[in-house]
């Protein structure tokens, strides 16, 4: 049986006592914490509650790790576009190369690999950079939603003809009106057989001439206060 303890957070802004009295005040903090632990819920399980050793003054705060002042954005946006494109191309090439036995007339939708197997294809340096700036390989693959479908830890080439494959996308990745044809079609540019959809059926631009300016309302930009 587990007991949930209420979480109490005390934040002090400045010291209201002499530094030399620290030991005494620390003792008071420990007493306070211990007094909270004899609440009715906790007392039921008191025998299982580890007593706080008063000899080790900082025991109750041990292991506390404050968050960084500035939180790092880890959504691949910090990575150079050509780096991301190279990784996408490298992974897609391998997946497309796995389609033995498919007749040449069919559009090659490639094979599938686990995220771990995909990681095995990439250089250590690339993986480390992804982890640092992007939240990892899986995030990069998911962010490149146009090209990949990640399902149950496996990576597939997305087949835009397959309604099921495009329906699994959540509302937030669904096409906003005004976003059509505002980005180039990866398949049109990179797939050996091109895009399986006709120009008019593909949400992405088939070549620069097919590109349209975005009519989406601009994302709210940060308001700067001076
Ligand atoms: Zn297309």
TrEMBL record:
Catalytic reactions of this protein: uridine(44) in tRNA(Ser) + S-adenosyl-L-methionine = 2'-O-methyluridine(44) in tRNA(Ser) + S-adenosyl-L-homocysteine + H(+)
Entry keyword Transferase: yes
GO MF annotations in UniProt: tRNA(Ser) (uridine(44)-2'-O-)-methyltransferase activity; zinc ion binding
GO BP annotations listed: tRNA methylation
First and last residues of each zinc finger (C3H1-type): 179-209
Protein family (similarity comment): Belongs to the TRM44 family.
Name of the protein this chain belongs to: tRNA (uracil-O(2)-)-methyltransferase
Organism (species): Iconisemion striatum
Name of the gene this protein is made from: TRMT44
């Amino acid at each position: 049986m587990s007991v949930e303890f209420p979480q109490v957070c005390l934040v002090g802004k400045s010291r209201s006592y002499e530094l030399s009295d620290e030991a005494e005040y620390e003792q008071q903090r420990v007493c306070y914490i211990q007094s909270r632990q004899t609440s009715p819920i906790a007392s039921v399980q008191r025998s299982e509650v580890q007593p706080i050793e008063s000899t080790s003054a900082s025991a109750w705060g041990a292991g506390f790790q404050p968050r960084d002042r500035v939180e790092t954005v880890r959504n691949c946006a910090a990575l150079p576009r050509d780096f991301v494109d190279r990784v996408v191309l490298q992974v897609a090439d391998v997946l497309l190369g796995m389609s033995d036995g498919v007749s040449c007339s069919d559009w090659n939708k490639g094979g599938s690999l686990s995220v771990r197997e995909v990681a095995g294809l990439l250089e250590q340096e690339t993986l480390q950079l992804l982890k640092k700036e992007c939240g990892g390989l899986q995030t990069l693959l998911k962010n490149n939603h146009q090209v990949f479908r990640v399902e149950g830890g496996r990576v597939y080439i997305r087949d835009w003809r397959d309604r099921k494959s495009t329906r699994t996308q959540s509302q937030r990745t669904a096409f906003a009106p005004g976003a059509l044809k505002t980005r180039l079609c990866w398949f049109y540019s990179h797939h050996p057989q091109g895009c399986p959809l006709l120009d008019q059926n593909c949400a992405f631009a088939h070549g620069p001439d097919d590109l349209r300016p975005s009519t989406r309302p601009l994302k709210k930009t940060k308001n700067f206060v001076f």
